[in-house]
Amino acid sequence: MKIAFVGKGGSGKTTLSSLFVRHLAAHRVPVVAVDADINQHLGVALGLDEAEAAALPAMGAHLPLIKEYLRGTNPRIASAETMIKTTPPGAGSRLLRITEDNPVHEACARPVRLDGGEARLMVTGPFTEADLGVACYHSKVGAVEMYLNHLVDGREEFVVVDMTAGSDSFASGMFTRFDMTFLVAEPTRKGVAVYRQYKEYARDWGVSLRVVGNKVRGEDDLDFLRAEVGDDLLVTVGDSDWVRAMERGRHRPFTELEGAVREALRTMYETADASYELRDWERYTRQMVHFHLKNAESWGNARTGTDLAAQVDPSFVLGEFAPGGEPVPAPQPA
After folding, report:
1. So which residues are the signal peptide here (predicted)?
2. Which of 58, 162, 192, 330 could pair with 17 as two cysteines, CB 3.0-4.6 Å apart?
């Protein structure tokens, strides 16, 4: 299952995504956590100190390796240099699986020990001084989009992506890559403004969107969110002493997290799991191709000097089957 956490800056999406990762790990569910925000805080939220978080390998720095591995023997892709962030897989491409060891995970993922379990953590890497004035942050998250486009994931295994703040993810097709998008919103006008943008942009793309109300401190806050987002409001979370301690670097056992927050995480998990029944691999592949052709026409063909439309394999549909037709087993939770 591919899960996105979005919201305005300061809404608490990194905190909520880290809690969701901890919840999955505590239940022995295989999980890859990806920090795709321009402000890289997910590692620290998962318990790493600042030095450990800063030492994580950046996915963007390993793009040549990622491209070459994913290209495999796909005859439609002449070279790794002609691959762009939206290049779709086809016959001969290498597909990725959450629980496997492969060169992409070996280069970019690092294990993070959590209470009762473990997660793999990958990061896009921060926006550096060398990037100022010459690079767009979307070029960094392109590595994440490529990863998701080649990922074959089953039920009871998760990729959780902490997305960049606001509605910036609509600058690429990555917003369509998820089974469930949790939008974290505070009970304020600014807090729900991103929800309205996301709802409008995602309307025609079959995006499953639910709102997680954060920093909700009473009935007035709850009534405000209900009035603004209606039935999209899934759960709310209030103040948490456990979270406050974590944000101060005072880590406590996950079992001490307040019961109301644990119940919210359980509901989020059940909602994400239920979205599995709505999976449509053909639509997923069709949207992937759509955004690839748009990117090819707008800038990709000129940059690579290649007709990138030729990379599309019209007979290929990504799904829970390996290229040879063998089903991909989904690990069972403990």
Report:
1. none
2. 162
Sequence-ordered alpha helix ranges (H) in the chain: 13-26, 42-45, 50-54, 63-71, 103-108, 138-149, 189-202, 219-229, 241-247, 259-274, 281-295, 301-304
Counting beta carbons within 10 angstroms of the beta carbon of residue 108, is it exposed (0 to 12), middle (13 to 18) or buried (19 or more)? buried
17-31 residue pLDDT tens:
999 999 999 999 999
SS3 123: strand
User: Are the C-beta atoms of 45 and 202 separated by less than 8 Å?
Assistant: no
Going by DSSP bridges, is the β-strand pair 31-35/158-162 parallel, antiparallel, or unpaired? parallel
Q: Which two tokens stand for residue 331?
A: 């690990």
CA 203 to chain centre: 19
Q: Could you tell me the two tokens for 23?
A: 């919840």
Phi then psi for residue 327, to 5 deg, are -65, 145
The packing angle between helices 259-274 and 13-26, to 10°, is 80
β 117-123/110-114 pair status: antiparallel
Rg (CA), the chain: 19
Tally of residues, the chain: 334
The Cα–Cα gap between 9 and 32 comes to 23
Distance (Å, rounded) from C-alpha 307 to C-alpha 193?
Answer: 39
Task: Give me the torsion for CA of 124, 246, 241, 13, rounded to 10°.
Answer: 0
Mean pLDDT of 114-126: 89
What does the alpha-carbon distance between residue 244 and residue 251 come to, in Å, rounded to a whole number?
Answer: 10
Instruction: Give the C-alpha distances (Å, rounded to integers) separating 267 from 32, 47, 181, 182, 220.
Output: 20, 24, 14, 12, 22
Q: What tokens were used for 280?
A: 């449509």
| Whole-number Å distance between alpha carbons of 264 and 68 | 41
Q: In this predicted structure, which of 50-64, 65-79, 167-181, 238-252 has the lowest mean pLDDT? A: 167-181
